[in-house]
User: Fold this.
Amino acid sequence: MSAFQPYALCISSSYEKYEKKYLAIVVAKIVCYDFNSKKFGEINEVKSDAIEVGRRIKEIRTNLGYSMSQFGELISNSPKTTVNNWERGINLPKEGKLKKIALLGKTTTNELLYGSPEEFIRKIVVDHFRLQLNPLFIQQIILFLNQQKINLYDEMAIIEFIQGIFDSGSFIEEESSYLSYSPVIGYDNLYTASEKKNEEIGAPIFYVYIERERNRAHYVPFTFLEHQKEKLRSLPVLKSQLEIDYYTRQFPLLDVELKKSMILCYGIKKDDTAIIARYEYDNQKKSYSINKKIDAIDIYDPFKVELDKTVAFFDRKH
Assistant:
């Protein structure tokens, strides 16, 4: 795979202006990929997540107000135990039954198996390219694929298309900085985060602890020097795509999934008391919502201890 700067394709300080130009650039530049000459209609064997399929089946059943037994009767007289196994992700319905379930749920078998086109493409990009693309950029990809009449669930067609975008080198509008994560030797799940721009990495800004099983990332400033007190007080907003990208661009490398992620930031308020802000990703709004009420179970204790030490230090200084 050739070298590229993929996030420069979808991040700009004036994203709306960039978004209007995007499709025109794609049409003009990706002329080397003759989609009409490729057989993109066939769906490749993409592994579906049985647990997620089960969750979707249960959602369809409960939305319709059926018990497992009633639902099973509609699906070729399947017994309750079979429906239960589907919903628990133990096994998947056969093709004919999948079609009936999709019909009841007013969806498609592809969406039942793989989620929405956005989820499917996001998974491909994470698994194949190890990247977390901007959600708005994915929407633009879908729009163009639809225009080209390319199956949105054809894995190889999508990989070739995205690779073609990257290989074209035509989308780098402006460089944007982001956090680059480096593991701390001798400590599990602990990283330093440094700002990276134009391939240059600065000094560490944060310590970051990753809870992979809970899809969470904890941030505490790297040092607690007196002259850095303002940094401790500058909690992120995480509303704009640019700021979200700054923190999450390398989340795939940390095995953190954006759409289910939570970020916790440890800082100090203006009255020199500790504050821990919790940000939960809203997949509908494509941004984080902040909640400053934190349960004890959410806190990473070593970071809280360091934060309390810093507050005590500032108190002694005054």
